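Practice set, problem 2.
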Amino acid sequence: MNDKVENSQPAQEPAKEQKISLYEKHRKIYVRAVSGWWATWRWVFVWGTQIIFYGLPWLQWNDRQAVLFHLVERKFYLFGLVLWPQDVFYLAVLLIISAYALFLFTAVAGRLFCGYACPQTVYTEIFMWIENKVEGDRSARMKLDKGPMDGRKLRLKATKHVLWLLFSLWTGFTLVGYFTPMEELVASVPTLDFGGWEIFWILFYGGFTYLMAGFMREQVCKYMCPYARFQSVMFDPDTLVITYDNERGEPRGARKKNVDTSALGDCVDCGICVQVCPTGIDIRNGLQYECIGCGACIDGCDEVMDKVGKPRGLIRYTSENAMAKKFDRTGLISHIIRPRIVLYTVILALICLASAWSIATRVPLRADVIRDRATLAREVEGGKIENVYTMKVMNVSETPRAYRISVSGIAGIELASETRVEAGPAENLEVTVNVRVPPEAVPQGSHPIYFDVVAEDDPKVAVHEKTTFLMP
């Protein structure tokens, strides 16, 4: 008897090696134009933000540029407000306000900033509008890209890129106009006599506008923007997001003549929601971090629902709780106003009010006093001891003013220099102040003294600065 048992199954072939790519190959997205309520609001924000950005550098205020961050003079002009380096506190407050506003808007309605006011979204929308006007609609652009490089294709592509480049350079030029007076920039255009840093920032910002809005587009939102990665921590079940009504739409399917479609949902599987999405996602697969909340899919789906005779809202702005519990409009709004939102709103309002009060009540005068370290102390006529100080008087108002300087803190102390100075609008004066003290007034060492600078036309405009007097 043969003890060897043969395996009746054939030997398995070795598994073939498979290569798995860690990076998704880029697929160009051809965005379909769409109209509707959300598209209208998107263009309202495009026009609004760009009118502000391109228009502010040209506005005049008190014979100067209304908004100017003059780095050379180290002054920030915001209409009637003049800010100095000492006012950097207000920049920190502005950043805090922006952060809390972002938290509030995100907690209420998701990525509203991304979908309507983010520069990446705004400039991409403008570039796509130019592309659509030059090359045609979605199908025309797809056909053009698949075709050979003939004369027509070369002409259209060249025209599009020239317009993109001109717009990008104008954008960079406008940005620099916030830091260099626009009149100086315009005067330098005929001769191209710009400064080195001005040329750099015009080309740098213009180049990035051309690259980000013309080529990278949705890749910035998907891979580069950190907001897309941490937005979920600010969402909760009552946050308004773009949502596909899966219960109403499924099972999806096309409507055909002489075919019973009663078992199908309202979604006709047309793919319009994917075609109009600037990031190329399918919202029917659920909320994804790539979704920027622009609402284009809502407009596209509503148009299709109108054509097939179904009610709008298959894709809509709603919350997870509202979708699951079928809230009506009243119930939806009542869940939006929740403790988290109230807390964010109260904190934001308090910071804004405190900032406005601080700006409204701030004294339009700054004074810095520095003792001359080259001449610490010296004896002058009458045996008095003299210290020399350098005082910087900054008139942060828009009107010329005269100021009186006085000193106190030691018996018999007096000023041996000019006690009256005049400063023009937003002018920074540097004056030398000589202070004398009788030798018997104080013992040897360092002693505190105080300078008072008071405006002649308004006693409330005054500063009280502390420094030291050195008695040898």
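Problem 2, part (b): a different protein.
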Amino acid sequence: MCENSKLSSIGFFDKLALKWDSLHDLKALSEQLDSGLTKFGVTPDENILDVGCGTGNLTEAIIRKLSPLGKVSAVDLSKVMLDRAKVKVNDQRVNWHCGAVEEMDFAPATFDRIICYSVWPHLTDVKRIACLFHRWLKPGGKLHIWHTISRSAVNRIHSEASAAVNDHLLATAEQTASLLDHCGFSIEEMQDDDAGYLVTAKKV
């Protein structure tokens, strides 16, 4: 991510953090996230990377699925987002990381699962990032690129937002799957319809 683009994105998300949760029905969102994690087959002792954790709504849902041995690494570019998430999710099983995910230095084969919830269009150099994810996953580990709204809704919201994100558009599930395939993933599931967007891939 170039420095100007990074600073622009940080400013946008720092400001958005102040009102993010007020834009959502948090009870309904919590139910959606719980249902999705159950569908993914999250098990109690997993080590999970939450990319673009924002104010911690997904992090909170993941923690509800985990045993005392489970762990979450939650990454976000915005310190303001992270500060809000830390208040919401005060749990020793979570390690918080501020910065761009491609700047993280996780060891190979660290994670059982990586979840990119409502963040994939905001990542730059997605091929490089996807290959990093492949490196960071354990053999058999899963990657989920997930939105609970449609691709057209995501792209409409971004195109009408600040100049910092109005070109952050979500590719078709087929395009995303093709990129992941080139990084060595096996594609397990694709959804790209009015109900939402999901690409699930496995490290083989």
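Answer key, part (b): The first helix runs from residue 3 to 17. The beta strands are 47-51, 71-76, 94-98, 111-117, 137-147, 185-193, 196-203.
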